[in-house]
Structures are given as structure tokens and as C-alpha cells.
Design brief:
Blueprint lengths: L30 H32 L16 H30 L6 E8 L2 E5 L9 E2 L5 E2 L1 E5 L3 E8 L4 E5 L4 E5 L5 E6 L4 E7 L11 E7 L1 H11 L10 H11 L25 E3 L5 E3 L2 H9 L22 H12 L3
Parallel strand pairs: 1-6, 5-11
Antiparallel strand pairs: 1-2, 3-4, 6-9, 7-8, 7-10, 10-11, 12-13
Helix pairs in contact: 1-2, 4-6
Bound molecules: dinuclear copper ion (CUA).
């Protein structure tokens, strides 16, 4: 079973535009030009298709073999026609090339004053890091679900420097028309200026394994004067006043994306279910066994491959340096409630 970290209906997709040409919100500086090129390409291809196939069907009918007396037409060539059917497509191809090249150069050249935000992809979550702040950004959205939140200010250029910890992922913001592969062992960048306030979904668009489709994030475009506050709020995960350790632990479980791989209902996913995990005796892949206690949980979160439960592949990333002590304690308290 696949569960979305953020159900798509909670991603806050903005209303459709009135324009029949605009299928998605055009929420970045790149969107209008790329849409224009796409529409031109589609229109030219559509018209060419009708002309070429139409002519073919017409000729099939007009020159159908009717009797042995039919003679083949004596025409050898038509210089003017041949020139036109070469020159007109060539002009369109040059328009596509120049338009595409200008947009590509623009997409590849972030302005020097762009805000630098780091994005790390791994199976199966995104981590967003802002300048001067180390904590991974994961924030509740409507309905209490959690997703990595990329907060950006309106009308200011933002550059994303991205890398992957494991396999190739791809960071795609449809509303912004930007998409770039996120590759282990190197940095790739994209930049954009958001021109519309609101929240927009982010997808992974490189098939990266079981939970590829739940590798989601959210871009939130805020007023420049709210940026600092919103960005800081997105990078804090602390136990709230009046919140029990168990409640906070459940937040941690969702905020760090543990739920991508570990269920709480007893069904095994990529990793063992958390239901009834504390006190359970687990057979390990090296043939030994262990009773799950606080220390084993802690070790498995910080050094996931140290003692792997039999039947599961050692593929969990480490959360060392991400989940702090308070969050760890709360997470374990929450796991104890999953009887
Ligand atoms: Cu990451 Cu698909």
C-alpha cells in the first residue's frame, strides 16, 4: 500500500485559470515564455500534421489506380514548391531554436543576488536547508500532515543547489515550470522568481523506487516582509506548550518522513512496522536476535545499517545530525504507544 506523506488534495493547488491555454498556474518568471514556446510547438505540429496527412489522403483518393490506361503524371519536380516546403519549416525550426536557446540560457544563469537554498534528495524525502539554518524543513500543512516546505519570497530570485544522497531524483515544480535532476556526487541548480503568492506542489519526477510517488514537497510563496518569519517557522520542530511527548513524537514521525517506510498498523512496508515494536524480539539479518528497546531504536535511527531486521534491505538513511535528543525521546515515547 502506498501512503502519501501529503495527500494531493491537501497540497493547496490554486484554482484553475480562466484562460483555456493556461493549464497550470504560471507562478514564476520562467512560466509564461516556456508556455508560449510549448503552445507554439504544439500549434505548428498540429497544423503540419493536418496538412501532411490531409494531402496524403487527398492524393490517395485523387490518384487511385483506376484502369490500365491510366498514365503516371509527367511532372518531374517543382522548384518553387520544393523551396517553400524546405524554407518554411526551416524558419519555424530557427524560431524554436532561438526561443528555446534564449530561455535555456536564462534558466541556466541565476542572478548574483539570488537567495541560496540547498535541497537534498534521498529515498524518499526532500530536505530543504536555508542559509544560516541547519534544521531540515518540515512543516505541517492543512490537515496536520507534514511535508518538506520550501518557503520563498515573492518577486525575489531564488537559487536551489541540489544533490542526492543515493540515487537520481528530480525536483519538479510544475507551477514554476522548473525541473532538474538531483544527482548523487554532484550539484545541480535551478533558479526562479516566484510571481504569485500561494502554495504549489513539488514532485520527484525520476523513478527512484518504492515510495517515489510519495516523495513530495510544497513551495510556499510569501510576501517578502513575511519571508524571514515564515522560513524560521518552517525550520523549527519543538514540543509545543501543552503538547504531550507522545503527541510531539507523532509529529516527529511524520515530519521526518518515517511514515514513508514504517507503518503504524502492523503492515510491513520498506521497513518493519512500528506497531508493537517496543519490546518485540526481532530476528536480525546476521542470524542473531534482539529485543527492541530505547537503545536499539536510537542506534537504528542514527546507524540504520548496524543491526538490520531479517527480511529487510539495509537502505535506510541515517538521521544523525537531523533528529535531536528531544525529538528522539518523543519519537520513542510515541512508538511505545503503538501497541
Ligand atoms: Cu525520488 Cu522519485
Amino acid at each position: 500500500m502506498i501512503t502519501f506523506m501529503v495527500p494531493p488534495e491537501k497540497l493547496g493547488t490554486p484554482p484553475m485559470s480562466d484562460s483555456p491555454w493556461e493549464l497550470l498556474p504560471t507562478a514564476s518568471n520562467h512560466a509564461a515564455s516556456l508556455d508560449g514556446l510549448y503552445i507554439l510547438l504544439t500549434a505548428v505540429c498540429g497544423v503540419s500534421f493536418v496538412l501532411v496527412i490531409g494531402a496524403m489522403v487527398y492524393f490517395m483518393y485523387a490518384y487511385k489506380y483506376r484502369s490500365p490506361k491510366d498514365k503516371t503524371s509527367p511532372i518531374t519536380h517543382n522548384g518553387r514548391l520544393e523551396f517553400l516546403w524546405s524554407a518554411i519549416p526551416a524558419i519555424f525550426l530557427m524560431v524554436f531554436f532561438v526561443w528555446g536557446e534564449v530561455d535555456f540560457v536564462k534558466l541556466s544563469s541565476p542572478p548574483a543576488d539570488a537567495i541560496d537554498i540547498r535541497v537534498t534528495g534521498e529515498k524518499w524525502k526532500w530536505t530543504i536547508e536555508y542559509p544560516g539554518r541547519s534544521m531540515a524543513s518540515t512543516t505541517p500543512v492543512e490537515g496536520g500532515e507534514y511535508a518538506p516546505l520550501l518557503v520563498v519570497p515573492l518577486n525575489q530570485p531564488v537559487r536551489l543547489t541540489m544533490t542526492s544522497k543515493d540515487v537520481i531524483h528530480s525536483f519538479y515544480i510544475p507551477a514554476f515550470r522548473v525541473k532538474k535532476d538531483v544527482v548523487p556526487g554532484r550539484y545541480t541548480t535551478v533558479w526562479f522568481t516566484a510571481i504569485e503568492e500561494g502554495t504549489f506542489p513539488v514532485f520527484c519526477t525520476e523513478y527512484c523506487g518504492d515510495e517515489h510517488s510519495s516523495m513530495l514537497a510544497i513551495v510556499k510563496v510569501v510576501k517578502p516582509e513575511d519571508y524571514q518569519r515564515e522560513m524560521e517557522a518552517a525550520t523549527v520542530l519543538e514540543q509545543g506548550a501543552g503538547e504531550s511527548a507522545e503527541q510531539f513524537g507523532e509529529k516527529v514521525y511524520k515530519a521526518f518522513g518515517c511514515n514513508s517506510c514504517h507503518t503504524v498498523d502492523g503492515s510491513a512496508k520498506v521497513g518493519p512496522s512500528f506497531k508493537g515494536i517496543v519490546g518485540r524480539t526481532e530476528a536480525l539479518s546476521d542470524g542473531s536476535s534482539i529485543v527492541v528497546d530505547e537503545n536499539y531504536i536510537r542506534e537504528s535511527i542514527y546507524q540504520p545499517n548496524a543491526k538490520v531486521v531479517a527480511g529487510f534491505t539495509p537502505q535506510m538513511p541515517t538521521f544523525a545530525g537531523q533528529i535531536n535528543d528531544a525529538q528522539m525521546t518523543a519519537l520513542i515515547a510515541y512508538m511505545k504507544t503503538l501497541k
